[in-house]
From TrEMBL:
Transmembrane segments: none annotated. Residues 82-264 form the Malic enzyme N-terminal domain. It comes from Streptomyces solincola. A divalent metal cation binds at residues 249-250, 273. This is Putative malate oxidoreductase [NAD]. The active site is at residues 105, 178. Divalent metal cations. Prefers magnesium or manganese.
Length: 534
């Protein structure tokens, strides 16, 4: 059988016949099977006699997609298509990437994950249980893939899904969604990938009490059992699939960095929330600084939400500042990280987490700053007032945290404030673009984690760029697969950030030229990013 959508005539050897072919979404072409293929695969009489082209199928499927009443129904429709005819699914998503990305990925995927057990139709991926580590090998083998057949595994333990927290086994859908983006955006072969959920239990009462919940019905495993399970997974996956990149997604803050640090020098692995997010943020900051006309090293950064993503962002900003010639100490001093107890300070002995410690400010430095006793600590508003940031980044999962007084205060001191509310899904964004433009008289340079519609402000249309790690991981993964990389290094991440920033700057310049302006004018910047794929 030739592969549709490829210019070369790739050949698939197919052992199954008849219904077995139609039931396998990787093989099924439905009404697009040619007469010859129908004869060869014993399909004559099993599909209606008419033969459609893939173009016809795509047109029909798109019309069906548009008939769905809401985003969740569209997501369910696409999942069913994915389960039925994978080639057609990717054709559709690729043809309508900007339109469908919010459905197969954030924000709709958050709803799909929350409703995983209620909406369940059929399994996809590999489900590994902490209660049966002895089954890891047979479960991975059950995928039917041989040692050389796997390029990439996206794995989650479901504890820190986007900004919505612990959703247990339903987390498998974030692994499925990330892999769909790898394929739709970078062309990674979906047959050489695996989504995996490590089901270590859940601490969400609502799931434990739900009779339909499909995961392990107990609290999350303790640290020893957890670590042993992760180790068994890494060891077994590495042995069975030695070429596979291990992508970690949406782990809780207590584990994400520990796991990355334990394996980053032993396997080809990366944590998307720490490193992918760090890289996309750096890309946004590089292009934002350029648009604002401020040398990178002269920026002052406030990161609100100093967890997995926030500190991953801080690390890459610090390294980028060091690359401009600052010492590590000088670079770190340009970063102010604020978490649930306020500005990170060295005297927060009971609450400061290990990975936050490098960014804790000296208590004497902030001695006179206003505190909020309810935190208790120095609140974001006071940090913005004192620091006068040029860049404000949100990774807190606290919708609306960048309120009008905070943003107006920032904009009093920054001609082009770079504001990046990166939290997902949409309702958890620290601010919405329309408000940011209004509060800054159109001066803010904005990119958001989830997609937002264009904003009309003062006679201009502002296209809102996205700062989502989805701009990084597809290319990073494809590059690592193509190069057969043995490790994912910090330099690769920096190269990815530079590449996205360069595309963003080029697209901003193009838009400015199209608007007949010699260079981007304040208030007229349409986008910090243009979607850089296809
Ligand atoms: N745009 C993108 O590409 C990405 C966005 N994110 C988003 O960032 C957010 C955080 O994700 P993670 O870092 O993985 O979660 P996390 O749980 O590791 O970090 C969240 C941090 O926010 C802090 N926080 C909670 N309430 C707060 C408050 N009221 N004030 C200040 N800080 C508070 C928590 O203590 C924690 O340290 C999520 O909404 C997620 O969707 C994460 C990864 C990528
Ligand atoms: C985008 C992403 O990885 C997150 O929000 O967790
Ligand atoms: Mg994530």
């Amino acid at each position: 059988m030739t592969e549709p959508g490829t210019s070369r005539a790739a050949t698939l050897r197919i052992a199954g016949r008849g219904h077995a072919v139609l039931a396998d979404p990787r093989l099924n072409r439905g009404t697009a099977f040619t007469h010859e293929e129908r004869r060869a695969l014993d399909l004559v009489g099993l599909v209606p006699p008419g033969v459609l082209t893939q173009d016809d199928q795509a047109e029909r499927s798109y019309a069906q997609y548009l008939e769905q009443p809401d985003a969740l129904a569209r997501s369910t429709y696409l999942t069913a298509l994915h389960d039925r005819n994978e080639v057609l699914f990717y054709r559709l998503v690729r043809d309508h990437l900007e339109e469908m990305l919010p459905v197969v990925y954030t924000p709709t995927i958050a709803t799909a994950i929350m409703r995983y057990s209620t909406e369940f139709r059929r399994p996809r991926g590999v489900y590994l249980s902490v209660d049966h580590p002895e089954d890891i090998e047979c479960s991975l083998r059950a995928s039917g893939l041989a040692a050389e057949d796997v390029d990439l595994i996206v794995c989650t333990d479901g504890e820190g899904i986007l900004g919505i927290g612990d959703w247990g086994v339903g987390g498998i859908d974030i692994a499925v969604g990330k892999l769909a983006v790898y394929t739709a955006a970078a062309g990674v072969d979906p047959r050489r990938t695996l989504p995996v959920v490590l089901d270590v239990g859940t601490d969400r009462r609502e799931l434990l009490d739900d009779p339909l919940y499909l995961g392990n019905r107990h609290p999350r495993a303790d640290r020893d059992a957890y670590d042993a399970f992760i180790d068994a997974y890494v060891t077994t996956a590495g042995r069975l699939f030695p070429r596979a990149i291990l992508h970690w997604e949406d782990f809780g803050a207590a584990n994400a960095r520990r796991v990355l640090d334990r394996y980053r020098d032993r396997a080809c692995t990366f944590n998307d929330d720490i490193q992918g997010t760090g890289a996309v943020n750096l890309a946004a900051v590089l292009s934002g600084s350029r648009a604002a006309g401020i040398p990178l090293a002269e920026n002052r950064f406030v990161v609100f939400g100093a967890g997995t993503a926030g500190i991953g962002i801080a690390d890459q900003l610090r390294d980028a500042l060091v690359s401009t010639g600052l010492s590590a100490e000088q670079a770190t001093a340009r970063l102010w990280c604020v978490d649930r107890y306020g500005l990170l300070t060295e005297d927060q002995r009971d609450t400061l987490r290990g990975f936050q410690a490098p960014y804790a400010r000296c208590a004497s430095e902030v001695a006179g700053w206003d505190r909020d006793d309810s935190l208790p600590g120095i609140p974001l508003a006071e940090v913005v007032r004192r620091v006068r940031p040029t860049v404000l980044i949100g990774t807190s999962g606290q919708g609306g945290a960048f309120d009008e007084p905070i943003v107006r205060e920032m904009a009093r001191h920054a001609e082009r404030p770079v504001i990046l509310p990166m939290s997902n899904p949409t309702e958890l964004a620290e601010a919405v673009p329309a408000d940011l433009l209004s509060w800054t008289e159109g001066r803010a340079l904005i990119a958001t984690g989830s997609p937002f519609d264009p904003v009309q402000f003062d006679g201009s249309t502002y296209r809102i760029g996205q700062a989502n790690n989805a701009l990084i991981f597809p290319g990073l993964g494809l590059g690592a697969i193509a190069a057969r990389a043995s490790r994912i290094t910090d330099r690769m991440l920096r190269a990815a950030a530079d590449a996205v920033a360069a595309r963003s700057i080029r697209s901003v310049m193009r838009e400015a030229r199209a608007a007949m302006a010699p260079r981007p004018r304040p208030g007229k910047m349409r986008a910090l990013f243009a979607w850089p794929i296809r």
